[in-house]
């Protein structure tokens, strides 16, 4: 009877952890739902790009298509759906259609936290992150913050602040290099941060890729404008040469008409011959007017292209300056928050040794829709959160006992 009981308990334990294992190991494509905010666009069609929100009916509003169903689709599925519809007439290529997820729908946190309610979702958030975003545990109920709970949150917050600071530092360095028309930049100052080498390498690689993409987009646009300018210059040269030859032909034809008219006066040639020469002269004059008109249009086009080339550089530099200003301001804000975070960590570390090293007073239940049904999942601080989850946090102060003072 005992082996059977042991097997029954083991099976029950395995079944209890299946939901959490599934969420931790399976990485199914993210499915859109009401509240998600997307950026849709078509390369080369500036007026098409827009920011759209999946409405309560699960639809998004798309130019030329109207309401399009998005709920339940992955980003790839939605991009494919839009591409299939927009490419029917052949004017738009499927590869030109872009769909980006700008903001996830929120998740919700309730219970013994300072600021319960909706919280913006970011990939990789855990219960620990959620509690930190909600302002930590409710100090009014708990009377004071428990360092055993707040220390991991503070460390995680401190690390996130350092990551954000390194990201902004790298961004400022790359923007400064781009403003100086440099093809490379030195990110060695970012490696002084107290983060792992791997983490900083990843942030540096991301910034280098972003720098390369910005440079490539600028160079491609500049090359297109300069190529258009060269074509207009070639057209101007051809038209100027045509005008020159046509002017010479006009002089010769005018002389021929004058001779014919003189001969006709003497009765040496027929009047019809004179009319033919006059007709030829009129055609040459019409061609000259047409050439002159095309010259004026080409010159106007050249002036516009020249201005666009100058304007592109001015706008690009203005955008870089604005982004550099924002990065610098954000760096200062993060530095201030880091100082405050460091002070909190010092205080927490001073009193942490006085408390028992366990989390027996914390209970977390994640309410999640699974196959359309709301399911309560027992969780801990490292459990990953998904959009639309409701995280219920409960503190039991009576279980968080002070340990004897020891050094």
Automatic annotation (TrEMBL):
Residues 107-137 form the Soluble ligand binding domain. GO terms for molecular function: polysaccharide transmembrane transporter activity. Keywords: Coiled coil, Signal. Residues 295-337 form a coiled coil. Gene3D superfamilies: wza like domain. Residues 1-24 form the signal peptide. Residues 26-101 form the Polysaccharide export protein N-terminal domain. Residues 157-342 form the AprE-like long alpha-helical hairpin domain. Pfam families: HH_AprE, Poly_export, SLBB. It comes from the Bacteria. PANTHER family: POLYSACCHARIDE EXPORT PROTEIN GFCE-RELATED. This is Polysaccharide export outer membrane protein. It comes from Rhizobium subbaraonis. The lineage of its organism: Bacteria, Pseudomonadati, Pseudomonadota, Alphaproteobacteria, Hyphomicrobiales.
């Amino acid at each position: 009877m005992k082996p059977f009981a042991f097997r029954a308990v083991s099976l029950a334990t395995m079944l209890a952890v299946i939901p959490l294992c599934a969420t931790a190991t399976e990485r199914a494509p993210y499915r859109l739902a009401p509240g998600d905010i997307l950026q849709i666009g078509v390369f080369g069609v500036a007026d098409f790009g827009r920011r759209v929100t999946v409405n309560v009916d699960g639809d998004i509003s798309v130019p030329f298509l109207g309401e399009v169903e998005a709920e339940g689709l992955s980003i790839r599925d939605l991009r494919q759906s839009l591409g299939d519809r927009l490419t029917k007439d052949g004017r738009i290529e499927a590869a030109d259609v872009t769909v980006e997820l700008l903001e996830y729908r929120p998740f919700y946190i309730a219970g013994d936290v300072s600021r319960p309610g909706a919280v913006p979702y970011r990939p990789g958030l855990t219960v620990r992150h959620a509690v930190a975003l909600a302002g930590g545990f409710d100090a009014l109920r708990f009377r004071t913050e428990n360092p055993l709970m707040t220390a991991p949150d503070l460390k995680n917050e401190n690390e996130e602040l350092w990551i954000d600071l390194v990201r902004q530092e790298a961004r400022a360095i790359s923007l400064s290099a781009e403003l100086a028309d440099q093809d490379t930049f030195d990110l060695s100052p970012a490696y002084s941060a107290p983060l792992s080498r791997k983490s900083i390498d990843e942030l540096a690689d991301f910034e280098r890729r972003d720098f390369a993409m910005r440079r490539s987009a600028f160079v491609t646009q500049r090359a297109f404008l300069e190529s258009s300018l060269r074509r207009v210059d070639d057209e101007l040269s051809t038209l100027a040469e045509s005008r020159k030859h046509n002017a010479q032909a006009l002089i010769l034809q005018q002389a021929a008409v004058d001779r014919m008219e003189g001969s006709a006066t003497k009765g040496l040639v027929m009047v019809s011959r004179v009319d033919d020469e006059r007709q030829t002269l009129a055609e040459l004059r019409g061609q000259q007017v047409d050439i002159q008109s095309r010259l004026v249009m080409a010159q106007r086009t050249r002036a516009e292209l020249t201005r666009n080339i100058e304007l592109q550089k001015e706008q690009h530099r203005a955008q870089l300056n604005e982004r550099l200003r924002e990065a610098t301001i954000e760096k200062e804000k993060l530095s201030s928050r880091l100082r405050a975070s460091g002070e909190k960590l010092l205080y927490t570390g001073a009193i942490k040794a006085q408390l028992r090293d366990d989390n027996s007073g914390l209970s977390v239940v994640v309410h999640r829709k699974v196959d359309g049904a709301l399911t309560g999942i027992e969780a801990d601080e490292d459990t990953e959160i998904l959009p639309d989850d409701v995280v219920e946090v409960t503190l039991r102060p009576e279980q968080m006992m002070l340990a004897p003072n020891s050094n």
